[in-house]
Amino acid sequence: MTERPRLFDKPALDRARARALAAAAPGADFLLARVGEDLVDRLSTVNRRFERALEIGSPTPALAASLVAAGRVGRVDRLDRLPQALGSGGIAGDPEALPLAEASVDLVVSALALQWVDDLPGALVQIRRALAPDGLFLAALIGGATLGELRTALTTAESELTGGASPRVFPFLDVRDGGALLQRAGFALPVADTETITVRYADLFALMRDLRAMGATNVLAARSRRPLPRAVLVRAAEIYAERFADPDGRIRARFEIVSLSGWAPSETQQKPLRPGSARASLADAVRQAGRSPQEG
Amino acid sequence: MAEIDRPASRIDPKLLEMLVCPLTKTTLDYDPERQELVSRAARLAYPIRDGIPIMLPEEARPIEEP
């Protein structure tokens, strides 16, 4: 395999997620729970049943269970890099090296996991290949506007106090790239949309505790190996409170959730007609539409 | 010690059907004795621990024979 520059330090990511799993802080999964509900809702609008499903990268069986409970899915297998996330059954694996046979599943679902892959286009291609024709891919990822306030506060504090700054919050997917990525990966009917969830905290330290509980600490390969000096954190907390607080003093943190969906191409799917193949004139349709209010 | 702890082939046959080598996407041979999934193409044996196939190349055992 060719060596490419790595964005994420996978062993560090595994350790951060394993720590978060072991701690199992109550309520730390609020984002995941919210996103999972949304994925199940999205699935319930699709009028068909999926016999074989794969769930990628959520730390608990909750999402897989609610997929089955919603009644549209037969069997769900789970895939995660951490065997301890799988409990009694599943596949320990990486979405960047997906160990699934071609056309072996009808549905792939992933909640808040795919932002941690180095090669998202490559992972999407592998997911599309694992899907049977007319199979569905539904995912939610952390998007680019996430934690913008934290990024600003940390970078400003660090450069004020140390004269330089290293990346502390990692770059996420831009929703504008989502649709194009799906299309490049060969998905039909690709859709990307975004939703912002604002969470309020007492201060920056409370926010950072929550991020640790989610296993979402800094795992950038290019991160500074030195921990943030206390003085920088304290200054960042001041900047955060000055710039991003509500009148009651609580601070705001934005999480952007990018949702992706696409279908493995199939002959039976709806497709755009070939240009020039229309049988009715648009001009006639417009004339008729324009007339109808007066006549009706 | 592992002989006693090792559960007799608890891996789900339906799961086995879905799996391929993550690197070469070729079929795997199941070795119930060693509890491994062998990729001849990648010359790697992926371990099965507690019924969970560990399909991570960095966890796999390199094998000699072609």
UniProtKB/TrEMBL annotation, chain A:
Annotated ranges, domain Methyltransferase type: 81-138
Q: Name one GO biological process term.
A: methylation
- Name by which UniProt lists this protein: SAM-dependent methyltransferase
Sequence segments annotated as region (Disordered):
266-296
Kindly state which keywords UniProt assigns to this record, in alphabetical order: Methyltransferase, Transferase
Q: Which species is the source of this protein?
A: Prosthecomicrobium pneumaticum
Q: Does the keyword Transport apply?
A: no
- Signal sequence annotation: none
What GO molecular functions are on record for this protein? S-adenosylmethionine-dependent methyltransferase activity
Q: Which CDD domains match?
A: AdoMet_MTases
UniProtKB/TrEMBL annotation, chain B:
| PANTHER family referenced in this protein's UniProt entry, alphabetically | PROTEIN PREY, MITOCHONDRIAL (PTHR33505:SF4), ZGC:162634 (PTHR33505)
What is the protein's given name?
Answer: UPF0434 protein GGQ63_002708
Q: Which protein family is named in the record?
A: Belongs to the UPF0434 family.
Entry GO terms, CC? cytosol
The record's InterPro entries line, in alphabetical order, gives: Trm112-like
Q: Where is the signal peptide?
A: none
What is the species listed in this Swiss-Prot or TrEMBL entry? Answer: Prosthecomicrobium pneumaticum
The membrane-spanning stretches of this chain are none
Q: What is the lineage of its organism?
A: Bacteria, Pseudomonadati, Pseudomonadota, Alphaproteobacteria, Hyphomicrobiales
Under the heading Pfam families, the entry gives: Trm112p
